[in-house]
Amino acid sequence: RDLEGWWPYKGQVDIYGNEIEDREYNTTDYDRKLIIDERTQAVANRITKWLKANGRYSKTIVFCVDIDHAERMRQALINENTDLVAENPKYIMRITGDNPEGKAQLDYFIDVHEQYPAVVTTSKLLTTGVDCKTCKLIVLDSNIKSMTEFKQVIGRGTRLYPDFGKEYFTIIDFRDVCRLFADPEFDGDPVVIIDGGDGGEGWDPTEPDPPDTPDDPDEPGYPIDPPPFEPLGGVGDPPAKYRVRGVSVTILNERVQYYDKDGKLITESIKDYSKRNILDEYASLDEFLKAWNSAEKKQAIVEELQERGVLLDALKEESSKDLDDFDLILHVAYDKKPLTKSERVNHVKKEGYLYKYSEVCQEVLAALLDKYMNEGIGELEDTRVLENAPFDRIGSPKKIAQLFGGKAGYIQAIEDLKRAIYEAA
Predict the structure, then answer these.
(1) 152 and 201 share a domain?
(2) Which residue, of 210, 244, 278, is where some domain finishes?
(3) Do 144 and 237 reside in the same domain of the chain?
(4) Which of 69-78, 129-138, 203-212 comes out lowest in average pLDDT?
(5) What is the extent of the structural domain holding 332?
(6) Strands lying side by side in the sheet with 119-122
(7) Distance from CA of residue 237 to its chain's centroid?
(8) Span between the terminal Cα atoms of the chain, in Å
(9) How far apart are the C-alpha atoms of 257 and 316, rounded to whole Å?
């Protein structure tokens, strides 16, 4: 519908019984004049697909048209991520000026040591004045035309933080906002204050966004028994927004563009570009395996390759399988048949590796395998993972280490677990 636009049939009414104005609706209208529920869910599904490929706890900001859109997007994302929301309802939150609960979580979102919230929806509260060092994904589902605002929005992601595995960031653009990258006015430098325009005053991010009238019966603030629809301003005036359901929405095409560390647009295929960069570092399979097996932290090898232009996240999205970074590298660079993370975990369990530990230690290691399935090998190598669910129900990181005989015993157990994961053929 973004490509072709959407046109109601003659006399069509929305879910509230309002007759929809007979004209074509396009991306400038969506979520401002016309809500298509299936489009919202399709966007949420695509975001979730990226998270599942690149780390479901990757800090993510979804920029929406307004507060109402941000709330609907939050709910759509919850629908796509019910498992993690069940673990912690703060996994996905709306942070907008009218929402004290969400605003209270802002400091936690930008804290590099906090896992929750991981995904936030917003309208304008996060465009300026917020330094989110570990934000890995910026989603644009808002019509941004101002160069100043565009630079401010992408500025939420441009700060790199190698110590926390952030060597680059990703933009998913549903509104063709990234055309502004090609604008001669774009110089790449972020702007700190958004110009207030003709009023001459800057926008204060602490001020709440203008209130929107809830139009979803499931949303807070919608009257329990709403009166019959009476257009404001006189008979015949259209409602602020039409809302429709039952529209077929499909992502027909995607265009992927990458800029290298020198700011040059990459024109060759992602696979060929990444393969060349891997082979520049490790010319043979034996050379790579030697480095991988001897590395104290496997994640260090992954991050080193990412620094050298290996686009692992993009390769994961192209792959139909849930692959570990290790298998992806072997497959792309050395043409080896990969194993999925599920296959590697099943191999560990089948070989009975966990059974040599006590029941509670088995519980810890099984949860770590689940983290590996969702996030990758880096989760096993970061002891801070023990501070979060489900480990916090077992005890503090210190107590968990004591279950293994102390810190050295826990570290050895993790090394043995990694060895068991990668010994599968």
Answers:
(1) yes
(2) 244
(3) yes
(4) 203-212
(5) 270-338
(6) 92-94, 119-122, 59-63, 135-140, 170-173
(7) 39
(8) 46
(9) 15
- Assess if residue 239 is contained within a domain: yes
Crossing angle (nearest 10°) for helices 341-350 and 407-422: 110
In DSSP notation, 319-371 reads -SS-B-HHHHHHHHHH-PPP-BHHHHHHHHHHTTGGGGS-HHHHHHHHHHHHH
Residue 68: burial class (beta carbons within 10 Å; 0-12, 13-18, 19+): buried
Average pLDDT value for residue range 147-165: 76
- Is the same domain home to 167 and 315? no
Determine contact, residues 178/185, Cβ cutoff 8 Å.
no
CA distance 148 to 170: 19
| 223/79 same-domain check | yes
In the numeric block, the tokens 């620094």 are attached to 307
Among 321, 338, 355, where does a domain finish?
338
- pLDDT computed for residue 223 by the predictor: 40
Q: Residue type at 412? A: Q
Q: Residue 149: what residue type?
A: E
Indicate the residue type of 394. Answer: I
pLDDT band at 194, cuts 50/70/90?
very low
Length of the chain: 425
